[in-house]
Amino acid sequence: MVRVFIKVRTSSSAPGAGLRAYPVITGPRVPSARSKCNQHGAQWRLQCPQRRGSAMTGHGFRAVASSRGFGPWAVATVGARLPIAMAPLALVLAAEAATGSYGFGGILVAAHTVGEIIGSPIMGRLADRRPSRLLLTAVLLAQGVGFGVLAWALTGAFPQWCAVLLVAVVGVVAAGVPGALRSRLTRMVPERSTQPALSIDSAINQVCWGAAPVIVTAVAASAPTQVLVVVAAPAVASCLACLIIPSRPAEPRSPSSGPTITDTVRTLSDVLVGTILMRVALGVMAVAAVPAFTALNHPTVAGLALGAYAVATGIGALALGSTRHPCVDPARRAHRTLVLLALALTPAVLFAHNVVGLVAVFVFVGLIEGPTVVALSVAVQQRTPPEVRATAFSVQYAALGVGFALGSISLGPLLTVMSPAAAMTCIGFVILVGALILSRWKYRSPHVSRRQEQ
User: Fold this and answer.
1) What residues does 102 pair with on adjacent strands?
2) Sign of the torsion formed by the C-alpha atoms of 271, 273, 274 and 275
3) pTM of the entire structure?
4) CA 385, chain centre distance (Å)
5) Is pLDDT above 90 for 364?
6) Between the chain's N and C termini, which has fewer beta carbons within 10 Å?
7) What string of DSSP letters covers 35-70?
8) CATH number of the domain at 71-214+222-250, out of 3.40.30.10, 1.20.1250.20, 1.20.1440.230, 3.50.50.60?
């Protein structure tokens, strides 16, 4: 029961002068937000943090940027993400310059993507068991050397099947680096700064994807056969930064202990499905951009639209990290924004004959995808313990590849029976149905990290 008192000041000449309290209301005690936090423990504190400032100050972007080792981490992240972003276009252009066949370039891209999907969980698991700077350095060096050898192989020094096998191995080796670096970032910053930190990570990723086509196109215009050497350069150059990143000790445990990859997939089931649906949208737009704008007699606008999409995604990610967010589960937030993303994609058919309107669709989808990416990443961080977080982020990275592949493949048959804009609308409705089903997903026992805030 709770008892409310009212204080009344009596006359100074009366006996017992001063403040006297009289009970006026009695009733059942209503639990406060603080008592709820105490009752539900760490999970409630992560879902309902008591923030007193925006994410731009205190425990926001400033706290992330001032964290020990953030500079080397950022350099290493750019060096790891830029080759991955440049690889698809560079492989196509290098293969066409060497063999005269765009089809062989497509085979190389497919082999690289399959290698990434297969290798992400495996290399992420290895990064969790051997969390050393030397491992990241060795992997990045192997990625750079692999692309360099591939450039040599395309000159005719090896059969084409050797080039396909080599690019698949490069995809496997480098697949776990983004997840390992993202896991390292969540260990470097305070717990309450996780969302701004992951927003910065997503923004860096989008900057790399936006700059990659420009770099590849500029190099290919003068030396198309050497474009893969440029792809290898960032990975090799970032090796030194990996050696400077603060190391963390490995948790002492037996090789058979801890959650397996299957356990991690089961824990993140709804997050992974949401990640796949989100990346399907990008796969569709990446393939549909050129034919859609070519039909409007503006083929050069396709690159502008994809670049605007990448910039908008980065802006959306930073916007979520720089604002206060309500007390909701990040996975549920991602499921809701995924519905908005699908709704932003479905009007594409209305702008099938309007260049500006079609570019606006790309921009709005990017603005919504940015917060979705961050919310899904925060959900991964909250549900997994630190000792398997690189595995979890790598599994999510594999889900990104699966979604992109599904979107790209599904668009091919649709383009034979409808326009590119109509195909984008059709896929948008499919994503909308999946997002609505996902919003009703009941996850009952998420794991919440109990690492003390720094």
Assistant:
1) none
2) positive
3) 0.75
4) 18
5) yes
6) N
7) HHHHHHTHHHHHHS----S-TTSTTSHHHHHTSTTH
8) 1.20.1250.20
